[in-house]
Amino acid sequence: MSGYSISKWHDTDAVYEQINKLISMPLIPLKREAVTKYMEYFETQCKKSKDMITEAKQYIPGGVQHNLAFNHPFPLVFTKAEGAYLYDMDGNQYIDFLQAGGPTVLGSNYEPVREKVIELLNTCGPVTGLFHEYELKLAKIINKHMPAVEMFRMLGSGTESVMAALRIARLATGHKKIIKLGGAYHGWSDQMVYGLHIPGTRGFEAHGIPGNCRKHTQEVFPNDIDALERTMKLNKLRGGTAAVILEPVGPESGTRPMHKEYNHQVRQLCDKYGALLIFDEVVTGFRLGLGGAQGYFNVKPDLTIFGKVVAGGYPSAGGLGGRRDLINHLAAGLESGKKRAYCGGTLAANPLSSLAGYYTIKELERTNAAVIAGQQGDKITKGLQDLIKQYDLPYVAYNQGSICHLETSAAMFIKLKYTSIKKCLGEIKARKFMMEEMGAAYMAEGLVTLAGSRLYTSMATTDEIVDEALKRFENVFKNVDRSNLLNDVEPGNMGQTA
């Protein structure tokens, strides 16, 4: 489909077949001597980062302010971002496949947008608390490319946007239940810390959150449209379904990929049972193309969640868009006596964020960045698949355009068995530790990834950069311990402890 980063939707069944094979095998980690060598890199080449993080742990929980910054064996301190590269405070250069968690489709610290931001800072400053012209310009340009977003309300984060969307859904429908896909992350509000990372975990990670806060949150397994309908049918007897919320490419930015027809099927069920369909496009909005995932799949959601990209990677970035009658529920103080879904945020839609978002989308229009980034995503995924085949490894590489996945331990694909939950948790821990070590190896080779299992390409990712990156990935694959492939080892005997 022209204008979108996805050249061809993957064979979802084939991806799951490969992942199921990987998860049925013992771990295929790095050789211990290779791990030792990679750990030496951090000790000898990243001393300034280590010293700063050691001090930061005295003042910041865990030593960092954001989950993306956690790295094994310790977080690195980055001081410069430019295009497809990052630089740490020790002067080391890295190829940037994190891209701030996805929003910088143009590349990091993109100069044309940065110049506009500097000009604004020199005149208006970052925030006034009052209306700025770029709030309107941003809303109009989003509507231009996503017609389903008839109105747009900018907020401070994706988490806030999800909270507002669920509040609107309950107010508009009069129903209570919210259904999400198991394993998906929709922010950290009390009602959404449910079924995170691995389907079936329900409230496992909801520490410090009273159970009543999530009593109307439900999860169904991804791609199981029959399970979704059964849940919605049952909900008719217990408060009704207010909304189904999903990432249109699949939970965790497509890590758990969807069948291409699934979104259409969910749209039909929402219409049938009087529920709203909410697309979480925090990552896919503008990264897949100017029309977002909803444009690619040709499915019209009732509400759309936006995140970091609506400020072009600049701070205070999130928003909620959708049907006019729904978004108008957020209008504050305009119609006395009318029930409204309360939300706020003093820094939301500040001049800096609104301007940065507007000019980012203008540059995406001008440069065709999403398609370029998708072409590079295809290239690096194909290169990883070739390396996996060359070294006869069970790893799995797949992509949705510029959103690329590399599963080496499949930590999030463990199937929970409540009869042996302790064993399941032990296996998850071991597989997660292997993923962290692989991520550290990539970092030592000069590759910044998201948790060692996800890569985002950008317009700044050139053919030469992809070729160089594949050489570095190959260096890591050369150091894989193949003994578990050669020996008849039981899947539960993973030969590694965290």
How would you spell out the order of helices and strands?
Answer: HHHEEEHHEHEEHEHHEHEEHHHEEHEEHH
Let me know the CATH homologous superfamily of the largest domain.
Answer: Type I PLP-dependent aspartate aminotransferase-like (Major domain)
Structural class: alpha/beta
Specify the CATH architecture of the largest domain: 3-Layer(aba) Sandwich
Largest sheet: 7 strands, mixed
CATH-defined topology of the largest domain: Aspartate Aminotransferase, domain 2
Strand segment count: 14
Poorly predicted spans? 488-498
Q: Which overall shape is indicated by the principal axes computed on the Cα atoms?
A: globular
Strand order of the largest sheet: 4-10-9-8-7-5-6
Question: Compute the gyration radius: what is it?
Answer: 23 Å
Q: What is the mean pLDDT? A: 93
Instruction: Report the total helices.
Output: 16
- The tally of domains stands at 2
* CATH class descriptor name of the largest domain: Alpha Beta
The proportion of strand residues reads 5-15%
Q: Could you estimate the helical fraction of the residues in percent?
A: 25-40%
From the N-terminal CA to the C-terminal CA, the straight-line distance is: 44 Å
Overview of the molecule:
With 498 residues, the chain is of the alpha/beta class. It folds into two domains: 12-108 and 368-486, Alpha-Beta Complex (Aspartate Aminotransferase, domain 1); 133-349, Aspartate Aminotransferase, domain 2, CATH 3.40.640.10. It has helices spanning 12-23, 32-45, 47-56, 111-123, 133-145, 158-173, 225-235, 251-254, 262-273, 292-297, 324-327, 351-367, 369-390, 421-444, 463-477, 483-486; strands at 78-82, 85-88, 93-96, 151-155, 177-181, 217-220, 241-246, 276-280, 303-306, 318-322, 396-400, 403-407, 447-448, 454-456. The strands form three sheets. A seven-stranded mixed sheet has the order 4-10-9-8-7-5-6, with helices on both faces. Strands 1-2-3-13 form a four-stranded mixed sheet. The protein has a three-stranded antiparallel sheet with strand order 11-12-14, with helices on both faces. Helix 5 (133-145) packs parallel to helix 12 and helix 13 packs parallel to helix 15. The radius of gyration is 23 Å and the shape is globular.
